Structure formats: C-alpha cells, structure tokens
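STRUCTURE REQUEST FORM
Protein name: AAA family ATPase
Source organism: Photobacterium alginatilyticum
Requested output: structure tokens
Priority: standard
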Amino acid sequence: MYESHFGLSDKPFKLSPDPRFFFSSPHHEKATSYLKYGLSQGEGFIVITGPIGTGKTTIARNLVASLDDSIVAIQIATTRLTPEELVRLVAAKFGIPVEALGKAETLKRLEQYLLTLHQQQRRALLLVDEAQNLPPETVEELRMLSNFQLDDKPLIQSFLLGQEELKGIIELPEMEQFRQRIIASCHLKPFDSQQTENYILHRLNQVGWQGKPALSQESFGIITQYTQGVPRKINILVDRLFLYAYLEDLTVLKADDVRQVLEEMQGELSGSMMANNRLGNDNNKPHSFGSDSSPTAPAGCTDTQATQTLIAVSEILDNVIEKKVATIRHLDKLLTQKRKALSEQKEKLDDGTILENEEFDSEDHDLTLQDKYWCKDLMAKRN
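Status: completed
Returned output:
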C-alpha cells in the first residue's frame, strides 16, 4: 500500500519468510554456519532452536535456496505426527507414491529412492520445521531413517528447527541415542538495539529505500523495547509505522510517532504482540528477554499457521484502510469544491456546515456523511 508512495520495489516487512531479506546477526550467522557444517559432513543431526518469530524458518529457506543440484532437499512443517505419518509425509514430499501403502512398504520405497539418488551422486536432506510438535517417538523415527546407509554413509540427513520446547524433548532419557547423533546445535536469540536497527535498515535497503521516511535514532530504541528484538514483531510494528507515515504524509518517523502507533495497536489484534509492555516515560529502557517472557502459541496452533493467519488479517486491514483513505481524499475534494463555490458567493461556512445533509456513496446508505463516526472524528481534529 505504501510501497509506491515511498518508491519501494516491494513490501520490506513481510511476515512470510523470504531468503532475499535474510539478515545475518551473530546468532543467525552461527546457526547458518552449523547448518553448512552439517551439510559438509553429510551425516548427523543439526538442531536449531529459538523463540517464536526469531527467524528459524527464514534460515532454513535461505539454506535451501543456496543448495546445488547435488542435494535434494525437502522441508516439512510438522503437526503432531505419529512415526508412521512422518514416514508417509517424508516419502510423499520426495514424490514417492504412498497411497494405500503400509509403513513397511513405504520405508522400502523410500530406501530405493535414496539408493537411486546415491547412484546419481546426489543425496537427500530433510529439514523439519516446528519440530517441537513431534512426539518423542516420532523424533526417534527420524533417527531410524538415518540408518538408511550405503558404505557407512547415511543416505538421508535431517536438520531440526523448533521452539525451545524441542530441547526438552531431546533431553528426555529415552532420547540418548538421538542425542549422540547430534553433531551441532544452536539457540537463536532476539536482537539487541543495534542489531534491531541494522535489521530494519537491511530490509529497507533490499527494496531500494532512499531514506523516505527516515527513522530517528530514538525510534529504534523504542522499537527494540516493545518488540523485544524478535524479528517477526519488528516486521509487524515497522510495517505499521510505514503505513502511518503514508497516511499522515510524514517524511520522518520520530519517537512520538512510534508511541502513537503503539497506542493504536494496543487495542487491535496485532497489539497482543506487546501485551506485556506499557507505554510510559522510560521509553529507552531495554526490555529483558528470557524464557519467562517468551510468548506461548495457542494450543494446536503452529508457528506457520500463526504466520498465515497474521498475513490474512494484514491483507484484510490493508483493504479496509485503502477504502478509508479513498473516502477521506474524496471528502477533502468535496470540501474544496464547496469552499470554492461558497467563496464565489462570498459566503464562509465551517466544514461541519458544508457537509450537513451531504449524501456520500458508501456502504452506509442510511447515514449522511456528517453522521459517520469517522467523519465526526476527522472534523473534531480539523477544528
């Protein structure tokens, strides 16, 4: 919506993961290095954990985008799968027909597929996103898949990405054999204030940002505080900031603008991302982030499902806002025309009188323009 107004080639703060916008913070760089190290070894498990919205899926997609044809990679975002369901899903993702097949026959066909890849001097990579949703017995099934070997080399390798609950599953006593096959693990952390600023500027530079609107230095500190340095929350807030700048025709976003947007978001669906924060005088004080402050996803709702829901809500809100902007611009045009006509008649009336009894084409056909709640608010602000 605001992209063309500010001369941007794309929306810079999308919720959906996009490798183009991958930002390599020290923690993300470490996680990426571990994944690449695991690839070079061709065996063992790599485990990446982190709070919701810290970029685990983006790291995975960035890795997949960098692979050559020698590696056939699939990525699954799991729900609570049984071991048999996992095997069927993995086989289906590799394009193996599994309909009406039992587990044993599915495993047989999967092994044959992996052997065929080996003959082609290729190998398989499985990236399991939202792995914290897997029951322990299903995680153990992943270990069993790594037993597909030829010449003491695994035919398939698995990387696990999940929220912090995944660590608890792996630490269970019955997961000892799985733990012994983990060659590296990394825990992602939220950004600090400087990393948050660099992250925002990085995403803006990817879409040709020319400094309009600019962000004041103080605004970065407030953004860090109220998003807790979590990339997804940063995207939600800064996207709204740019929309606010567009609607208010601003060229600079200052601290007060950030506070204004935060106030508006407190009463909206997206306001829940800062439910534990309250606006006050101490706006530059860093907000501590730990396991106690990490948001918990609703039961049965995965990180990917939450993202899709937020994207849908965002699109709906954008459409509503576009209609309101068009209405307000039509209103300004109407006022200008009326003033001009009255000026020629040497009459001077206030905006409220001008609009009185004016009908306006909208969904609310039974209301005059002046009776609409948003028109009353607008008139109050203008006066």
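Reviewer notes: The chain has a mean pLDDT of 80. DSSP finds 14 helices and nine strands in the chain.
Form closed.
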